[in-house]
Amino acid sequence: MRNFDLAPLYRSSIGFDRLINLLESNQNQSNGGYPPYNVELVSENKYRITIAVAGFAQQELDITAHDNMLTVRGSHPEEQAEKTYLYQGIAERNFERKFQLADHVQVRDARLELGLLYIDLERIVPEAMKPRRIEILK
Asked: 0.85 exceeded by the pTM?
């Protein structure tokens, strides 16, 4: 059983709509795990997403960050001739993969090397949000 009924959460929670929507959207992802990816913790505030995009050229990939959502799309040109395969083990289909980013996480750079797309992220917490020590007056 992989699907859960989240309706009771809607009745008993206030202000957690985003969390519940994340759970539901994660439950309904039907891309079949293509393309495969890794999420790596590089250091305390740095992360790296690595996506296997073999067969895609740099101009066929699109990376967009908007409202804490990172979207990576890969699409082959429509004018490619249809091929007749005797066996096809390499997936070359178009894809769209979305990642929900936490607050204050920004995309630093992206690069394509040997069929792997590396996207570097960094959490930059504003000074006002960092904990600070309060001195006790005598």
From this structure: no
